[in-house]
Amino acid sequence: MNKMMIPILFAILTAIFWGCYGPTIGNAQTPRVNGKPLLPPEGWTSFKPYVFIGIAYLVIAIAGGLVMMKVKGDSFSFTGDHFPTMKWGFLAGTLGAFGALCLTTAMMTSRGNALLVMPIVFGGAVSVTALVSVLRLHEATTVSPMLWFGMLLTVVGVVVTAMNTPHGHAAVKKPVEAVASAPADLDPAAIPPSQDS
Q: Mapped to the 3 state alphabet, what secondary structure does the chain carry?
């Protein structure tokens, strides 16, 4: 396999996982009664599912990280020359956790509207990554005007994608209760037999 295909493959997998993240967390949104959120004690806030997002991060990140460190023959030292791994890893995890908290809150306050939230998240993330690179390398590189054009196209793409993604929920099947809902004066013999019999 071409060496460039490995990071591209994992980037695509990340997009798939994170693309499914929004709709999945939308399933845990606060229930609503007459359009108003049902808050505790009968309902819940956006922080209840966020606790289990954190548990999942904790379990997968720590267990997966330790296993892969062992597989790759890494040391378990995080001091001395290895201290930057702890410092930058913790900062990255903090940013990721705050991002997950903001995304969870966005999904909950938008009634689980992943079609609105997720394009903004991913389109915005691309632009923020580009801006961070510009700030870090501003003295060592020349910024192409096409970067700003690409960021503008990203905004347009987010808007067009959000506006044209199919909306609505799947139709809920209602049970057929012909006999139970029939008027009392209706002759039962006049009701056609069930197709299941």
A: CCCCHHHHHHHHHHHHHHHHHHHHHHCCCCCEECCEECCCCCCCCCHHHHHHHHHHHHHHHHHHHHHHHHHCCCCCCCCHHHHHHHHHHHHHHHHHHHHHHHHHHHHHHCCCCHHHHHHHHHHHHHHHHHHHHHHHHCCCCCCCHHHHHHHHHHHHHHHHHHHHCCCCCCCCCCCCCHHHHCCCCCCHHHCCCCCCC
d(CA 149, CA 121): 19
* pTM for the full predicted model: 0.68
pLDDT tens digits for 138-152? 777 788 889 999 989
Q: Which two tokens stand for residue 115?
A: 């079609």
Own/partner pairs for 90-96, CB < 8 Å, 24+ apart?
93/57, 93/61, 96/57
pLDDT digits (tens, 9 = 90+) for 92-124: 999 988 988 888 888 878 877 777 788 888 888
Please provide residue 105's backbone torsions phi and psi, each rounded to the nearest 5 degrees: -65, -40
